[in-house]
Amino acid sequence: MIPGPPQILTCPYCGTEKEVMSLASGNTFGEVIWSDNKRIAPMLPEASYIQKCPHCGKYYIKERQKVKYGKELFSFELGLLTFPEMKEAFAQLSEEGFLDEKEEKKVRMELHHSYNDFYYRNAANKEINDDDKRLFHDNGIWLINNFITDNVMKAEFYREIGEFKIANDILESVEVEDAFLKQIVSQIKDRLGENDCRVFQIK
Questions:
Q1: pTM of the model
Q2: In whole angstroms, what is the distance from residue 83 CA to residue 74 CA?
């Protein structure tokens, strides 16, 4: 991994600037893939799609920014959001309106991943708030209906939001030939048998 000059972001609400990491080069060595399709590559870090202004606390989408870079050698700031911050960001951005469906899909997937980060990936037996569970369920349904086309992934997302019967019915109707994909289906079915919503590591 070779960091590049920091990208300069400007808050569209108050004009405060911040620097985030950019890469001159990177690789996927040591990459971990999770069942919710989140990929974590230590040697290929990526600044958060959604950034929080350090001054006014408002949220904005990084890709809406005109790209410009600072003169410093590098920055390691990624601006990653916690799940509580991601909930605030989702509420704010939804109220303001998304530029297009592609942008909304990206934000909603970030919400899905941050929930799994908070309750499963980075936590041990944390009690799930009912409001969070409803938000996660409704957001998952939106993603299944508007974004996810692969049936195995649909089944996995239904499992994660607690719709176990639907997930099982989908998997019963799917024919899988690839050996690696068969292994994933088997892992999903094992967890369905235990009514387990937890995200799991694929590799």
A1: 0.94
A2: 27
